[in-house]
Amino acid sequence: MFLRKSGIGAVVAALLASTPAFAQIKDYQLGFQAPASEIMDRIESFHTELVWIIVAVCLFVLALLVWIVVRYRAGANPVPSKVHHNTLLEVAWTLIPVIILVIIAIPSFKLLYFEAVIPPNPDVHIKTIGKQWFWTYEYPGANAGFTYDSLGLSDADAAKAGKPRLLGVDNPLYVPVNKVIEIETAGADVIHSFALPQMGVKMDAVPGRLNHTWFKADKTGVFYGQCSELCGARHAYMPIELHVVSDAEYAAWLADSKKKFAALDVPAPRLAAK
Ligand SMILES: [Cu+2]
Questions:
Q1: What is the band of 3 on the pLDDT scale with cuts at 50, 70, 90?
Q2: How far is the CA of 235 from the centre of ligand 1 (A)?
Q3: Is there a shared CATH topology between the 38-116 domain and the 124-273 domain?
Q4: Which residue has the higher pLDDT, 271 or 164?
Q5: Structural domain 124-273, CATH architecture
Q6: What is the whole-number distance in angstroms between the Cα of residue 189 and the centre of ligand 1?
């Protein structure tokens, strides 16, 4: 190993050893966490396309710069060029960027539309309410009908529970795998934001307004998110812990939670209308 057990090597080794191991996030990871929904799959591949376009444009501009610096340096050109315009070039450097932007815009709008339009008849409705500084979750409907608070764990409690620091919570969110989950979100006091990176979900939770988003988790596991709108002193301490489970586990959790958590006496308007 190149890390010696002294000085900075020891510090790095200690950090590596103390980093909680949870499947989706690697130490010193660059790029996104592994996608766990089709939305995030699409976001990731669009991002990769953009990166290649950006790399190509940067390399092209760099090549032009190097060429100009070498070819037209003062030493090799005692008499400076007096050329001041070229119509063909000017049309080209206007049209080509326009074409590149249109090429980017088409998949971008497609992706925005896919994220924005909730598939008809979602399987699960959940309301997530951002509060200073925790989340309240509401599960309306006949076989649910309960509400509970979800608070971030202290460092000591997270270590005890084997959960990652600043991401583990006392009462996680549960959803079934391969089902369309509709999220309605609002803020109770200030603006928060409900975000789950591996699902490709980020939606502002605004007081006095109900925002909608959705996702369909395509693998089971534990996924973490955080409030993503600066909402006050303990903004960094209101994480989101999502458990994606099988249908049977979800049904068991619903039955259990119905007994454990407070009843939700106001059903969601949409469900009441069904
Ligand atoms: Cu916040």
A1: very low
A2: 4
A3: no
A4: 164
A5: Sandwich (2.60)
A6: 11
State in Å: Cα 216 to ligand 1 middle.
Answer: 24
Residues, Cβ < 5 Å to ion ligand 1: 192, 227, 231, 235
Q: What are the extents of the domains in the chain? A: 38-116, 124-273
101 CA distance to ligand 1 middle (Å): 34
Note whether 45 and 31 are within 8 A (CB): no
The predicted pLDDT at position 94 comes to 96
SS (H, E, C) 174-200: EEECCCCEEEEEEECCCCEEEEEHHHC
Cα of 95 to ligand 1 centre, how many Å? 43
Q: What is the value of pTM for the model shown?
A: 0.81
Looking at residue 270, its pLDDT comes to 56
Q: For domain 38-116, which architecture applies?
A: Orthogonal Bundle (1.10)
Q: Which of 9-13, 25-29, 64-68, 220-224 has the lowest mean pLDDT?
A: 9-13
* Cα dist from 195 to 47, 98, 110, 121, 148, whole Å: 18, 33, 21, 22, 19
CA-to-CA distance for 127 and 187, rounded, in angstroms? 11
Q: Is the pLDDT of residue 273 over 60?
A: no
Ligand 1 centroid vs 262 CA: distance in angstroms?
25
Residue 31 is encoded by which pair of tokens?
Answer: 């790029």
Q: How remote is the CA of residue 187 from the centroid of ligand 1, in Å?
A: 10
